[in-house]
Amino acid sequence: MKKKNERYEIRIAGFGGQGVVTIGRILGIAFSVHEGVNSVNTQSYGPESRGGACRSEVVVSSGVIHYPYVREADLFVALSQLALDQYGASLQPDGTLLVDADSVETFPEGFRGDLFMIPTMAIAGEVGNIKFQNSVALGALYWIIQDKISEESIKKALAESVPRATLEGNYAAFEQGKLFLQKNTANKE
Amino acid sequence: MDFMHKENLIQAGVHYLQGSQACAEGALTAGCSVYAGYPITPATEVMEHAAWRFPQVGARLIQMEDEIASASVLLGASLAGAKAVTATSSPGFSLMQEVISYAIMAEIPFVIVDVQRPGPGQGYITASQEDVMQARWGHHGEGSAIALAPSSVQEMFDFTIEAFNLAETWRTPVLLMTEETVAHMRERFTVPPRESLRILERKKPQDLGIAPQDYLPWGHDTVSPLAAWGEGYAFNCVGLVHLEDGNVTKYGTEMHHHCIKRIKDKIDGHVEDIARLETFFLDDCEHLVICYGSVFRTAIEAVREAREAAGLKIGLVRMVTLWPFAEKKLRQCIGKTGTVFVPEMNMGMMLHPITEALRDCCDRIIPIPELGKLHTPELILSTLYKELQ
Q1: Which of B127, B161, B219, B370 could form a disulfide with B30 if both were Cys (CB 3.0 to 4.6 A apart)?
Q2: Using CA atoms in the order B318, B323, B328, B329, what is the torsion angle rounded to 10 degrees?
Q3: Regarding the domain with residue range B13-191, which homologous superfamily does it belong to in the CATH classification?
Q4: Is the Cβ pair B297, A43 closer than 8 Å?
Q5: pTM for the whole thing?
């Protein structure tokens, strides 16, 4: 199966409550409203979205997006081992994997792409609230896809999507997530 | 309808919303001033958004005790001159059939949105196209239905407006048959400037210079103007077989035929005006995929891939309108073809009118069923390759 080059597929998965749906929505708004490219955001639906493994997807393209779901993820973000086990098969063998360092220990068989690990929960705790875990992940995710979207677009979308009182904390978490990847990664220029 | 707070209608420009939310915004933009509903998964988001937005604009929203009551509110609201809407999902749609039947007979326009879920029974809560036959045949008795099938967030907005236009034009309930896929998807969509939107208003007897004593609620032209309660045009609104003035006491076979034939003909005699198809790659095609709703999104991706990767000469027809069924248009655009594939999120429902329409136009028809979720491109592709290579 060959994908059209312009199509970029992101899948974010974790436990229900970790904010993976919110990450997807923020990315969608950032791409479509602020960056001006097409994106479709979908999320898991049904009992699994209330606890258990939960996923959110964003398909981005400069062209028209027909099939709305991920076919082969270019980027997979896993905030729990269960989520990676359940949904990891969709990741391209040479795709990019971003995982929570404290929760994920085993990786999809045959995976040979770029791996990024970040202790999202721990960093969120240092920022002041573990609820900011998804914004830490979003900062790291931004660092990976910075050639596709501007920081300004994501920050605008973040500001539109979280309660005003928590914006400062979310911004700080975003910044720490981004910096962690910047400091601790050698294989990305 | 002039809203008290028109300035709060959705602004022209680019938006990023769920299909359900775009649907509720489309209703308001069409001038819908009454929402009555009973929440049900996966249609709840329509009402949730409406509950927030309708009051902001000056429109009314009421949660009723069940689906029959919700749909019944639409009857009253519409007869009082308002555009009215509800959204439900399959089990609730079943309950609304009684009201739909009455509204077809009494010719009362409104819009019902069905975010279909799998059945029978409570079935499940995910995507489905299992109500497409219920949309046409669910109500008891004669009379035709109008049903649209959107496939994007943009169309959830556009088709909701179109549904109201059709309801007002033909004085009949119109059904927006959608699925969890599109209802919960978030996507970029554009609201055009207000002046470029086509929004049709109801014909009233006073607009046509018909005096109250001369008014025939079911007698002027193919579609009679509909008087609003409280504007001086008293009439007997009935679900019984009636004469043009609403009289039900002079029953006879002839008037029975006349009453029903008129209601049926106003839709079935105008299929060409109402029903729409979209066609792709028909110029060189030897085989065909026919689909509707969100399955169109998978189907076009699969057809493109089969053409590019395998050189298969496959065309695509998308039914924008499910009912009335566009048989003539379908036959005209196809001519003769080889194999016809029909992917649907059911075990093969629109397959039946398609088979009937293409009885002498194709070699064979192959259903591609899926239950509870949208077809993957791989599912459609594997069937195409298996049958054609």
Answers
A1: B161
A2: -30
A3: Thiamin diphosphate (ThDP)-binding fold, Pyr/PP domains (3.40.50.970)
A4: no
A5: 0.96
A-chain residues within 8 Å CB-CB of B181?
Answer: 42, 68
Q: Is A41 on the interface with B (CB under 8 A)?
A: yes
The b/e string for B257-276 (b: 16+ C-beta within 10 A; e otherwise) is eebeebbeebbeebbeebbe
| Residues in chain B within 8 Å Cβ distance of A2 | 305, 309
Architecture per CATH, A8-184 = 3-Layer(aba) Sandwich (3.40)
Chain A contact for B250, CB < 8 A?
Answer: no
Angle at B265 between CA B261 and CA B267, to 5 degrees: 135
Instruction: Give the gyration radius of chain A's Cα atoms.
Output: 15
Using CB atoms within 10 A of its CB, is residue B91 exposed (0-12), middle (13-18) or buried (19+)? middle
Q: Closest residue of B to A47, CA-based?
A: B125
Coil vs helix vs strand at B38? coil
CA B389 to each of CA B313, B343, B381, B382: distance values in angstroms, whole numbers, following the listed order: 11, 19, 11, 10
Residue where the block lists tokens 């003539």: B328
Task: Please give the CATH number for the structural domain made up of B276-388.
Answer: 3.40.50.920
Name the nearest CA neighbour of B384 among B286, B317, B318: B286
Average pLDDT over residues B129-152: 97
Q: What is the pLDDT of residue A1?
A: 39
Q: Is B371 on the interface with A (CB under 8 A)?
A: no
Distance CA A156, CA A96 (A): 25
Q: Which of A25, A29, A45 sits opposite B180 (nearest CB)?
A: A45
Residue of A nearest to B41 (CA): A46
ipTM value: 0.93
What are the sequence ranges of the domains in chain A?
8-184
- H helices of chain B, where? 19-29, 44-57, 67-79, 90-106, 132-137, 153-170, 180-184, 253-268, 271-274, 295-310, 327-334, 351-357, 377-388
CB pairs under 8 A between A and B: 61
Where are chain B's structural domains? 13-191, 276-388
Give per-residue pLDDT as tens, B307-354: 999 999 999 999 999 999 999 999 999 999 999 999 999 999 999 999
pLDDT at A108 over 70: yes
Q: Identify the three-state secondary structure at position B177.
A: strand
Q: Report the chain B residue with the minimal C-alpha distance to residue A160.
A: B16
B311 touches chain A (CB under 8 A): no
- Provide the 8-state DSSP code for A61: E
Structure tokens at A108: 């999809």
Nearest CA-CA partner of B112 in B81, B144, B145, B140:
B145
Cβ pair B180:A40 closer than 8 A = no
Q: How remote is the C-alpha of A121 from its chain's centroid?
A: 14
> Which two tokens mark B46?
């329509």
Measured between alpha carbons, how far is B219 from A184 in angstroms, rounded to an integer?
A: 79
